[in-house]
Amino acid sequence: MKSIFPVDEPPSRLSFTYSTLMVLLFIAACQYKKETHTTTATPVIKDSAILSKADIISCSIPPKKTSKRKKIYLTFDDGPNKGTRTVLDIMKEEQIPATFFLVGEHAIGSTEQKELMDSLRSLQTIELCNHSYSHAHNKFDKFYMQPDSVLADFDKARAVLQLTCMTARTPGRNIWRIDSINGTDIKASKAAADTLQKYGYQLVGWDMEWHFEAKTMQLTKTANELKMQIDSLFMRNKVKQENHLVLLAHDQAYRSPSNIEELQKLVRSLKQDDNYDLELIKNYPGLSKN
Where does the record place the NodB homology domain (predicted)? Predict the structure, then answer.
């Protein structure tokens, strides 16, 4: 094909501009095509019908709340006495279970104490157990030297308190005699404890005690301090039965406004803690159902 321009003549300025424009348009078209082919594709969302089990759990189901594992048994000794009504009212208001280890002599000591017994028996969330008839008159060494007399004392309390269960706690001694635990804190009390067990009594001690000053009746620890101690005992497994803790308190300590407030704080703190369940002592492992 014959050239548009003569071989010896340079192209005109218009023709050169036109040619340059065409070249630029061609380069731009190629670049656009390249970019459209290399653009990252939009991720495709999985159809719900083919979602894996892991996808469903992680995306649509909230994490499962940790189930409660540890059990706390609130037990109160020496009633019925002047603090028993307050303790009972708090347990009733907060709707939590509690076990009262009662003294037979106190149950018939006055009209008020007899009425307290009726109130204690009326609640299904309350468990009543034997804490002896005389409480050894607080002369513990002498009391445990005579095993037969100890047995008679507990039998008398059982009759006065009208108890059907054989669960008991020895006064002034942290003694255990159940299927899973056998322990005596003071060896001189062993013969008396063995005698009680021989005649069907199941003796329950405690893992920790909420102490109070004998003269002032004031608690030696606040509710927060006691809660921290409970957490620590569980963490270090310093309990008789793993994941089970028996707390001993005394009715008579809860008469002053400050002590009453601390008991309320403790109860509410334990209720709100998802690590703990509050239980009656009859549900303690190793305790026969009798």
Answer: 70-279
d(CA 282, CA 290) in angstroms, rounded, equals: 9
Per-residue model confidence (pLDDT) at position 219 = 98
Query: What one-character-per-residue DSSP string does 205-253 give?
Result: --SEE--B-TTT--BSS-HHHHHHHHHHHHHTT-SSBTTEEEEEEEGGG
The reported pTM is: 0.77
**What is the set of domains in the chain, with CATH numbers?**
70-283 (3.20.20.370)
| Cβ-proximal residues to 90 (8 Å cutoff; 6+ apart), any chain | 254, 260, 263, 264, 267
DSSP annotation string for the chain: ---SS-TTSPPPHHHHHHHHHHHHHHHHHHHHHHHHHHSPPPPPPPPGGG--HHHHHHHHSPPPPPPP-EEEEEEEEEESSTTHHHHHHHHHHHT--EEEEE-HHHHTSSHHHHHHHHHHHH-TTEEEEE--SSGGGG-HHHHHT-HHHHHHHHHHHHHHHT--S-EE--TT--EEESSS-EEESSGGGHHHHHHHHHTT-EE---SEE--B-TTT--BSS-HHHHHHHHHHHHHTT-SSBTTEEEEEEEGGGTTSHHHHHHHHHHHHHHHH-TTEEEE-GGGSTT----
pLDDT at 20: 56
So what's the pLDDT on residue 31?
A: 56
